[in-house]
Structure formats: C-alpha cells, structure tokens
Amino acid sequence: MAIAALLQNAALAAAPVSGPILVPAGATGTAGAKQYRDVNAVNALSAQAKLRLLRQKVKYVFVIFQENRSFDHYFGTYPGANGLFDASGKLITSANSGTTQLIRNVDGSYSSISPFLIPQSVKDVNGNTVLLYPEDTMSIDHSHMGMVYGAHFKGATYPTTTAQPTIAQNDGYALDQEGLHFSGDSSDSSTVVNGSNATPTAKPLLAKKQQGEVSVAHVDCDTVPFLWNYADRFTLFDNFHQTTIGPSTPNAIAMIAGQSGETQWALHPALGTAGTVPVVGDPGPFPGSNLDTSAVKPPYGPDENPATPNGNLTFATLPLSFMGNKIQQIIAQDQNPTADLLDVQHDIPKIASSNPNVKWGWYQQGFDTEPFGGTAHASYIVHHNGPQYFGYVGDNTTELKNLHGLGDFFTDVANKNLPAQGGVFYVRGGYASNDGLVPVVPTASEKITFAGNDDHPGYSDAYLSEAMVADSVNAIANSPYWKDSAIIITYDETDGIYDHAPLNIRSWEQKGYPLTGGPRIPAIVVSPYGAAHTISHAYSEHSSVIKFIDELFGLVPLADLPDEAKARTLGQTELNQGNLGPADDKVNPMGDLLEAFDSYRLLGYAPTLPASYATISQSVVQSLPHYGRTGCSALHITPTDYVGGVLQDPPPADFNPRPGTAPGIPTSGTWTP
Question: How confident is the model at residue 8 (pLDDT cuts 50, 70, 90)?
Fold first, then answer.
C-alpha cells in the first residue's frame, strides 16, 4: 500500500513527529539517543498498518534463545525499566514485590534479605581486593515446585485439583534454595516448613545459605554490557514472562508451541494423571519408540539418558504450521504417522489450506559436529531442543533437515545459504564456546566448569554467552539479511532467580499448582526498523514471539487450529480451565512485539538503523573481561542502584556467587576463588 494511504489510514500528518527524546538517565551520550524517535512516532501507525509494512520489509526472523536468567537479575537496575529501584535510587517496596524476604542463618535464626548487586570485587578483612567474578554464578533450584515455592502463593492449600490463588508474594526465593518454604496454609501462610532437602530443625550449612543469597542477587552493565547495549539502542521488554513455571524443557517447547502440553492433557486425561503432560520437568525427548530402530534419534549429550525419554508430544507447533501448503507432502515422510500425528488430524487440512510454507531452522550447539572439535555432541544439551520432543519432527527425515549445529548458523549466514524467501531461525548455545574463549575465573577447574555459552548459570560464563549473542547479531548485521531482519534475543526461564514483578497465572497443572504465566525473563528486539531507546511494558510471553511470527507470515494462530480449539473446549468442560493451550490468540493480555518497530522507519520518514549500529567490534567481543569490567562507564549508563556514585545495595558479608566450586566467605581472608 502506498505511504499516503497508510498515513491516511493512521490519521497522520505527512511530517515526522517532533517531541522530547526519551532516554534512560545517564545514557544521553550514547549513539542510541541520536537515533531515537519520539514515542508517538514509534506507535504512530495502527497495528494493522504497521504489520502491513512489516510484511513488506521483514523477511527473516532470528530468535537468539538463551538460558536461565530473570529480568531483575540482568535488568533490575536498567534506567526507565520496571526494576528494583525508583528514580531516586530507593528500593521499591510495593505490595507482593518480595523485595524483603526471609533467609535462614547458619545458627538457625531468621533474618531478612533484599536484592543486591554482585559487584566486580570486594575487600577482605585485610583490605585486599578480592574479585568476585559475577559472570560465573552457581545454578540454583529451578524446578517446577522450586519456582512455585519461590513465588509463594499465599493462601494456597496444596496439593489439590482445584484452581489456586493467583497472587504471588514473590518472597520465598531465598528460603526455597535452603530447602525451606512457606507452608501456604491459609490459616497461617507465614509458617516456614521443610522442603525436600531440609528439616524444620536443621541449621543450613553456609553453602546452602549462600545459595539462598544467590537467588536474590543481580548484575548490571559491568557484567553484561553487550545486552545492555542492545537494550539501550533498540527495544527492551520489561514485562516479558516465561510461559511455564518450571525449568528449561517446558519453556523450550513453549517457544514453538505456546504451551508445554495442556491441550494434549485435555485430549488424553490419563497422560495428565501419569504426569506426562503438561511437561513441567526436564525429561529427554521421544522421537519414536526406543525399540523402533528405524526412528530418527537425536544425538545425546553427556548428561542425557536416552533410556528415559518423555512421551511423544503430539500437539501443534510452529514447525507444524510452517509446513503450510506442503504439509501433506512433508508428513508423508513421517516414520510413525499414526502416533506422531494423532492429535493434529484436523489441524493438517486447515494448515494446508490457510498457511504458506515457511522455511525454518533450529541451530543448536552440538547437534552436529562443531568446528571446535572434541567428542561428538559433547556440547549438546538435548533437553533444550524443543522440536525434538515432537515425533512429527524427530521421526520425519524431511523435518529433521531443519535441525543443525550452532556452527552451521554462522556458515549459512556467511555463505548466504538461508532461503531467499526468508523464514524463521532459532539460535542456541551449549556447553562450549565456538569462539574458543576461556572464562577468566582464576582456577583451572572453574575455567572448565563455566565454559558454556548459552548463559545457563552453573556451566556458562556470562561474558562467553553474550559473546555468542554478539557473534550472532554481528553475523546477521554484516550480511544481506540485516536489511530484512528482526532479531529477538530472549530466554527460556529464570533458573529460580528472583524477580519482583507480578505473575499472570492463567492455568494450573494436574495437582493444582500454578502452571502458566511465570516470572519475567529478558527480551530485546533488534532490527533496522527498530524503535531505539525504547522500553515496552506490554505483557508478553514466548507466545508473543509466536504471535509476531503468525502475524508476519500470515499463519493461523496455533490457538485457532481446530484440534487445539477442541482441546481448549474440553479443558473448559472437563478440567474447568478455559485458558489451556497456546496463547498466541484467545488469551489477553498478550503482546505481539510490534511496539519494537518504529513507524517512521517503516514509512521512510526516519532512516533505518545501519548494520554498524547493531555491530559490536570483534576485538571487543574477543577481549575478556568485556570493557575491563567497566561496561557501565563504556556505555555511559548509570544503573539505578547508584546514587551520587555510591552503591545502594552491596552484598551480604558472607556472600559467595559460587559456593559449589569456591567454598567459603570472600571477606573472611581465607576464601580463595
């Protein structure tokens, strides 16, 4: 449609909007400020008009999909975001924020703890500087029940099959890591009881208390400067939530399905009783029976057990929708169609008649041989590979060709191998660094322990991980794909790390525990048509990524496919739940990421953002620690927990970010990382 018609449809004047430049405090000197368009310009077009232009401009969607960080852990002190501190540097104390919560001391007493920064260094008792290496932190309890206990739904009476209270107090994070939690008993909701690894009378070991402290710790632009740089220059989402209250697998599935199996549960209640679906843990995938020697099997990493797979997942996903008008041709290659396609029989003709064929790829480190060598698949983490859980992908020789190693992504972009018509491409790291980078932690054992690049605490280094993100963005920015691209940088779940924002619970699993609408995770959208220096407050989830892809490529929303709609109805009538299943439609609120794009860039009234604007110099990417641990200064950004240069939230005296690999207390004079 002509620009004039678009302007008329949107009731706009044919001139750029002028107005105040809205930039985070302390960031006025950044390049992003010069590129910023007034907020009215960003959203000047109607959603329909903006989407029409996006369909003309954007052909490639890249999803850089990282691991296990909460929004507050990375962006809780980002200026302008819904974070931990107000504009005056005061810790927020709003209702149900959990900014003050209980922790149990090693003598058995209880005290309070609030969110704090992991600084780059502290002084020991002798006045010596001790580096803390905040880029390397332990992984904590991020199980389904651990997250439920961390959120603390006051007044709940578990277990039950009845829907429970939806208001989370967000004050049980530290206790859960110590093996404790609030009882939830409506008669005394403040009672602390034992969890799975503690008794009410046991005194926690120092390492266990430190684990509780890790859960409420956060970092800033000194530790993840690349991510803050992208947030500053493009659009940061401060209300983006993980889908399932649980670990990586259900949320890797949700990235392509908008759910972790609720519709399969509604169609087959016995699978719910058995605990198969919805998926709330980290089982291995099930691409066909283990006894079926003809099935296409995934490669298994060193920590995976192919003998204990999950049940075959049979609900609709984007990979099924992507088959489009070629779906009959593609599913003909399925080795076990009776089982794999059981629950999408009515979806198939709808997809065939309504969806275009969309090219896609899932690039995950270790799926095939990586350029850095080593044992085959040693860097692969199979329970992070969402498509492998669906037989109609894993049992299909045609579909399996869409699964690749991480190194293949850089090769395909460099060699211009991506489809000319565009598509959707997911990028995931693993246990190693494709750059050959080595963590700067001081001990040889920790250099090995934190060698990963997917940002998962416990085995990945934050510098190595944001280097992987920068490598991916740089590769796209310096290719012909940049001018037609939208890059979504986001995460699967929080690792059990604290976040203060309200949860949006809309469904419950088999035992009555909250299931969907979990804590916030980071999300950033990068594009040449991006809204610079912008923060979106729209409620979003993994389903928002799906919704954006649906709208951009003209796909029927997963929630509107016939079999998913039938299951949603059964969920209402049989399970008394009306919001089971994918949330890319029929669930409000649910954003679609459109606010990340500047209307005036799409209209041509403001320049598109050049590739150089998204690029981080390779010399900087390869140099550890990034910006010499002074990323905030390099970016000219002052985090909100600094007032007059004074840190408002220092760590507890006995804090240790890695009690499992470097036990002790850093300020005792005896702690040696």
Answer: very low
